[in-house]
Amino acid sequence: MKQTFILKNARADLRRRPRMRRMTTASSSGLRVVRAVRRVWSEASAMEVEHERIRKLAEHAAVEEARQPDGSVRTSLKHSVVPDVELVGVTLSPSNVLHSLTFHDAVPVSTAEQLLSHVLAGGRKPMARAALRELCVAVAAIGEEALASEFGKEVAGAAMTVALGRPRPGHSVLGQGTFRAAAPAWAVLAERHALSSEAQEVRMYRAAGLSELRIEQFADTSEEGIAQSGGTVAWLAFPGGFG
Fold first, then answer.
1. Helices (H), ranges, the chain
2. Phi, psi (rounded to 5 degrees) for 50
3. 130-147: per-residue pLDDT in tens?
4. Could you tell me which of 134, 137, 174 has the C-alpha nearest to residue 158?
5. pTM of the prediction?
6. Residue 160 and residue 144: Cα distance in Å, rounded?
7. Which of 14, 76, 177, 218 is deepest in the core (most CB within 10 A)?
C-alpha cells in the first residue's frame, strides 16, 4: 500500500510538471510584455518632458543669421541654453528663394510662422521651395485599387511602386520609366497633398503669404527626396510671383 501511494504521487507529480513549465513560460512572457510596456511608457514620458522644455525655450529664443559660403543666409531660432539646437531655421538663397525650412517637433507651428515673418520683413517677396516629406506615405495609404479607379490600372501600379519604393514586377530597379509612367497621377496627388494639412512646410509658407503653388516632379533626386516624395517638390510664390 505504501509503495502504491508513492508511485501514484510520483505519477501525479510528473503530470503536473509540464503544466508548471507552461505556467512558468507564460509568466515569463507576461513579465517581458509588462517590462516592454513600461520601457515604452518611460521613453514616451521622457520625450514629453524634453518637448515641454523645448517649447518653453522657444518662447524666449533669439533670431540668429549666418551667411553661408555660397552667399545664402541661414536664419535660425536658437536659445543660449541649447546653442547647438536649431529650433526653427530657413535659408534664403542669393537667387531669392527660401528653402530648407526645418523646425523641432516640439516647436509650435505658430513659432515657425513667426520666423518666416521675420525673414520676409522689409517687403521681401522671395519664392519658396518646399519639401513634400509625407507624400509617398500619403499615396501608399490611398491604396492601388482606389488609385486605379481614378487613373487606370497601369498608372496606379506605377504610382504605388514609386510610393513604396519597390521595383515593378519584372524590373530589378526603380527606374525612370516607372516615374514617367506614374507622372500623370503623381502630379495630381502631389498637388492635393501640398494643399492638405499634412504638408506642414507648404502650409507655413502659405500662411506667410506665398499663396501660389506649383508642383515640380523629378526635382529632388537625392535618396531622401526619392524615398519621401518620389523626387517631387512644391514651389510657392506671392500673388503674381510666377509671372
1. 2-59, 109-119, 135-142, 144-151, 153-164, 176-194, 200-207, 223-229
2. -65, -40
3. 999 999 999 999 999 999
4. 174
5. 0.75
6. 6
7. 76
